[in-house]
Design goal:
The protein is built from 13 helices and 2 strands. The protein has 305 residues and is an all-alpha fold. It folds into 2 domains: 1-59 and 226-297, no CATH class; 61-178, no CATH class. Strands 1-2 form a two-stranded antiparallel sheet.
Length: 305
Amino acid sequence: MNRKMLKNIEWGILICCLILLCIGIVALFSATQEDNNEEFKKQILWAMISIPIMIIVICIDYNLIARISPVLYGLAIISLIAVLFTKPIHGASSWFKISESLTIQPSEFAKIILIIFLAYILELFQKRDKTEINKLWKLGIIFITVGVPIVLIAIQPDYGTVMAFVVAIAFMLFAAGIDKKYVIAVILIAVIAIPVLYNFVLPSHAKARIDIFLNPELDPKGSGYNLIQSKLAIGSGQLFGMGMLMGNQTQLGYLHPKSTDFIFSVIGEEMGFIFAAVVIVLYVVMITKAVYVAKTAKDDVRTDI
């Protein structure tokens, strides 16, 4: 890694990621006391593996990654189709089970691959003129490209990942300079479509999850129980927290699953409002910087893709 490469790294994003990693690992250590910190140990292992991989990827010419992105996209689609034929876990066919302790979720890899492939397509479209993205037929190609993996993931079903895809794609199109009229049109369509989808398309269990999310007290001893406990955990942390390994909801088993879905509640209870706010601020800074980089980054040396 040469000096020029180090100079061009957006250190603000990297620092935010490392701080979030540290906070998450500390919270996970507290949240996994009852299982001898097994998930904590896995997270440490994956962190040790992922950081060298990050350095290697930084050193690879991104044009090379862009050139092979169509192949990676095809492999991602195949994996998303194949996973539909696996045995459901927690009601969703989203994982390949390698062993009792190791599962792989192809949609997580598909997120990265789709972003790279979509960037490749946008680059091809905008070589001559940045306004090319606003041609309807080119927008159609983009939406078909992103629509295929989104539909496959929705079939699993994994609506949370679908939303993550939609948000990532929206940011990319915004950074690419999509015309405001399309943004307004999408907002209007969403305003009309959301009530229709909610009332006539979403399965009953998905509607129930939305209802409980908005009002956990509808089923306080059933579906709303975990949400209520998470709110109690965050509230009981107050300003400075109850202290590591001292959270009532966390350590007495009221939060579930506390090592994944409700890890933020663990942070709020044991580290307090200050650390919880720091987490939110770090995400805001990271997203803001990422959008800024996407809109302003320029190549020092241009190569054909």
